[in-house]
Amino acid sequence: SGGMKVKVVLAACMWQNPHILILDEPTNYLDREGLGALVLAIKDYKGGVLIISHNKEFCDNVATEKWIMKGGYLRIEGESMEKEEDKEVGNKAPEEVYDGAGNKIDVKAQQSVSAKDAKKLIKDIEKKLKDGKKKKTLTDEEMWEMEDKLNELKEIISKEAGK
Hints:
Domain ABC transporter: 1-28
Low-confidence stretches: none
Mean pLDDT: 77
Protein name: ABC transporter domain-containing protein
Keywords: Repeat
CATH architecture of the largest domain: 3-Layer(aba) Sandwich
GO molecular function: ATP binding; ATP hydrolysis activity
């Protein structure tokens, strides 16, 4: 049946664990049970999902943000990613991330640094940069990395000062 074909195709797509799913009218041919399973699968899915659908009940169950085209005009409903990011408490990176082919990707967790620690690190890095330039022991790439780190730390201090 058409519903079984839809289930098999969706299962195969999600098994590959892609970063994004684009679903065009995914509710076609699905019975109530299949629709419920699809809603649960999408809610559990860790990647991005773009859904094109006329099924309002389905969209209400899975979408936090809806872009509605009506009469040639776009109306956006729900919470955008910007508002979601404002709610986040920390920048905790996932422990394990896999690409679409199932290969594990190394992810480094972002460490939070206090303004006091940042000032100390800035002094240390500036000293290393100065010594490295004077003695010519640093490569250009090492200097660029140190300068990037300095800029990150200075940004942390300016954000802390702004609070």
